[in-house]
Specification:
Helix 2 (about 25-30) packs parallel to helix 3, helix 2 packs parallel to helix 11 (about 275-280) and helix 6 packs parallel to helix 7. The strands form two sheets. This protein has an eight-stranded mixed beta sheet, with helices on both faces. A two-stranded parallel ribbon has the order 7-8. The chain has helices at about 10-15, 25-30, 50-60, 75-90, 105-120, 145-170, 205-225, 250-255, 260-265, 270-275, 275-280, 325-335, and strands at about 45, 65-70, 95-100, 125-130, 175-180, 230-240, 240, 265-270, 295, 300. By secondary structure, it is an alpha/beta fold.
Length: about 350
């Protein structure tokens, strides 16, 4: 654990006791910030909002009174989440909308972004890049990119570029627009492979996952550096250890680990896993600033070398803050999605 002892969330994370312990939930963060029903003037979009952390993020941010949009692959699953949110909070009439979007297809991202902008009236205060896949078998998307790099990072990069004008135009002095990027402590498994983004040689599922998550951190850092002066900030984060379908491709390896006492103690529910996302999205502590890596509702320090499943070291890798590499990834990504620099 490498958060600051000065954080109000430090003590509850210092000695975790497993799922449903005293660590905050996403709704708890809304309560802590006293924002229940007070964001009726805000518009939010969350990718991957139909399950687990994404669904709990949508539930909590809807409690603020904001208009919430969730992107989904499966509209039936998305509607079930929406119905459940309204059922659990029947007096909250803030709207929730669905946008169909498949993040391993850049054309689907373009179509989804167009649909969102039309429905929202070109208004957007908060973009939460939550959707992702993990440790998938090797495959290339229809656009020709490795699946995890494309889904976890490149699709979100394109989505941001398409929604950037709305984010900048919607920013206010009271609430600068924000982008929240879901990364992972597994970013420590790989730097960016600039000469071979798609692992045409030497593919390893978790190394590819690590690269994609390093890329999301670089994206947040670069957004904050390039657009912070214009009232647009970004943060990246590790949500925590959560049992979900994300680990479907490594289930045989992962399941026994949940029984290790130190790992079981770190386990979070989906609602607890969404807490850092919501903290990054709404906390007054981060108003007007960003470009940092968070976990457990705190900014993290550097990784201290205590790797392993029983370690409680959620610090960042040595390569996380590197402007030269961030700028190279940004420039290459613009070319990949067909957008001119400066557009």
């Amino acid at each position: 654990m490498l958060g600051s002892p000065a954080s109000k969330y430090y003590s509850v994370h210092a000695t975790p006791r497993g799922a449903n312990d005293a660590r905050p939930t996403a709704l708890g963060i809304v309560h802590d910030e006293d924002l229940g029903g007070k964001w009726s003037d805000k518009t939010i979009i969350i990718t991957g909002g139909s399950a687990f952390v994404g669904a709990q993020t949508a539930r909590a941010l809807h409690a603020t009174g904001a208009a919430v949009y969730i992107t989904v692959r499966d509209s039936a699953k998305g509607q079930k989440v929406i119905d459940d949110i309204f059922k659990s909070d029947p007096t909250n009439k803030a709207p929730i909308h669905m946008i169909t979007m498949t993040l391993d297809d850049l054309e689907s991202v373009r179509q989804g972004a167009e649909a969102f902008l039309k429905q929202s009236g070109n208004k957007l205060n908060l973009l939460v890049c939550n959707a992702g896949v993990m440790a998938t078998p090797y495959a290339l998307t229809r656009d020709g990119y490795e699946t995890q790099f494309a889904t976890n990072y490149l699709s979100h990069f394109l989505l941001f570029q398409l929604l950037k004008p709305a984010l900048l135009a919607s920013s206010t002095p009271a609430y600068n627009s924000r982008v929240v990027m879901l990364a992972s402590e597994s970013h420590r498994m790989s730097e960016i492979r600039f000469q071979d983004y798609s692992f045409t040689q030497g593919y390893h599922p978790m190394t590819a996952y690590g690269q994609s998550k390093t890329a999301t951190i670089y994206m947040a850092n670069t957004i904050d550096r390039r657009f912070g002066a214009g009232g647009l900030h970004a943060l990246s984060l590790h949500p925590g250890a959560i049992r979900s379908n994300l680990t479907a491709h490594v289930r045989k390896l992962a399941e026994p680990m949940w029984e290790i006492p130190a790992v079981k103690a770190r386990e979070k529910t989906a609602a607890q896993g969404a807490a850092t996302t919501v903290y990054a999205a709404i906390s007054k502590e981060w108003e007007g600033k960003g470009g940092r890596y968070l976990s457990d509702c705190m900014e993290m320090g550097p990784f201290q070398g205590k790797e392993g499943i029983v370690a409680m070291d959620e610090g960042y890798a040595p390569w996380v803050y590197n402007q030269e590499k961030e700028d190279k990834l940004w420039a290459d990504s613009l070319k990949m999605v067909g957008i001119a620099e400066g557009s």
